[in-house]
Structures are given as structure tokens and as C-alpha cells.
Amino acid sequence: MFDRIARIYDRLNSVMTAGLHHQWRRRAADLAEAPVGGRVLDVATGTGDLAFELARRVGLDGGVVAIDFSERMLSVARDKAAARAQAHGAAGMGEVRFEQANALALPYTDDEFDAATIAFGARNLADLQCGLRELARVVRPGGRVVVLEMTTPTRPPLSLFFRLWFDRIVPLLGRAAGDPEAYTYLPSSVRRFPDPETLAATMSQCGLVQVRYLLTAGGIIALHVGTAQPRVRQEPS
Question: Least CB-packed of 80, 117, 179, 201 within 10 Å?
Fold first, then answer.
């Protein structure tokens, strides 16, 4: 499904969020607190927008590994990276390496990254707890894990607007774009996803500490951040 919508993904994101998704990704990159010269992992990178924000934070001596399950999404991301390099050169950004990988079985060693992020992808994981445990595993102790996700507002009038927009308008946009299935999936995936408090508790259960979250865009967007801690390693018997 994500392969099918890769070429229209950026345009529809901008239409659906009035362009605010860039601002939310910048906020997520800030919360990651990636050090200059550090290494960051961006999971479910899609077309790479958050990865590019992170690359600005780590600078020329740092790097970002950006993974996705969808090869066509990665192809769009690589095209964007090439266009940016041609237009602006390095521009103080670290290298972004795009790789196809499974978020539920990350092909990286323990404590390999200074921070890890996932934006608008956690609700697509077949096993949320497994994905969060993997994020916590690959981040060094003291590093941050940031989850940027949509959530369902509960108070009117925004809750009424949200239902109208996501249950009626978004599927129409998908139909106009030629893929109604994908944009019917979007509102249903948001409704199935845990509420912010439950997600924070799940992150704590998956090995993260000092978990907190903030809501923005009137309660439609939740940004969660937790800190990786040293894992207890069992001695061989």
C-alpha cells in the first residue's frame, strides 16, 4: 500500500495538514536532542523529511540512518536527498543513509545510536511493543527515543471536526488521488492506536524511562519522548 502512494505521499500530507507536518517533525527532531557529531536512527522514514531535520541537528560530522519497509518510499527519499545536495550542497548537514529494514527486527547492534525517532509510523507496526523495544535497544543509555503520532481528540468542537475531516474528507482525497483504500486505512489506523497516556505507559514497559508527552495542534498530534537506560545483562550460567 505504501509503495502505491509513495509518489503522492508528500502532496497529500501537505494538503491534509495544511503544511504543518514539517513543523511537527522539526519539534520531534528538537526533542531527540541528538548531539552534534552523533548518529541517529529514523524508523519508518517514509520520504525522509524527519531524517533531513535530524541531519541538520547532528551536523557534518554526524549521520542519520533512515529506514523504511517500503522501497518506493525510500526511492522518493533518495531522489529528494539528491535534489537537496544538488541545490544546497552539504549545507552543514550530516550524511543521511537510506536503508530498507524491518522495524520489528532492526539490523543494528545494541547502543549503536545516540537517538531514535519514528514519525507517523508507530501505528503501522504489526507489533507496537516489539517495535518500541527495538528502538530502545539500539539507543545508547541516556539517549532519547521520540514517537510523533496522530491521536484522536476527545473534546468538541475539535473532536467533531476531526471525525468529519478524517472519516469523510480524507477518503475523498484518497479517491481523487487514485488510492481510496490507503486513505481509508489512515483514519482507521489512528482510531486503533493507543491514546497518549496508554502509549506513554507502553513505552515505559518497553525499557524507556522518564517518558513524557506533549500534545499540539489542538490535541491531534502527540509527541512522546523517553530515555534509554542500561539493560540488565544476564551472565551465562
Answer: 201
157-203 confidence digits (pLDDT tens): 766 766 767 676 766 666 666 666 666 666 677 778 999 999 999 99
Q: How far is it, in rounded angstroms, from Cα 204 to Cα 227?
A: 9
Confidence (pTM): 0.89
* Mean pLDDT lowest among 17-21, 140-144, 186-190: 186-190
CATH fold of the domain at 2-150+194-228: Rossmann fold (3.40.50)
Task: Give the Cα separation of 203 and 128 in Å (integer).
Answer: 10
C-alpha–C-alpha distance, residues 45 and 55, integer Å: 13
Give the sign of the dihedral formed by CA 155, CA 160, CA 162, CA 167: positive
For 216, the grid coordinates are: 499540539
Domain range summary for the chain, segments of one domain joined by +:
2-150+194-228
- In single-letter form, the type of residue at position 46 comes to G
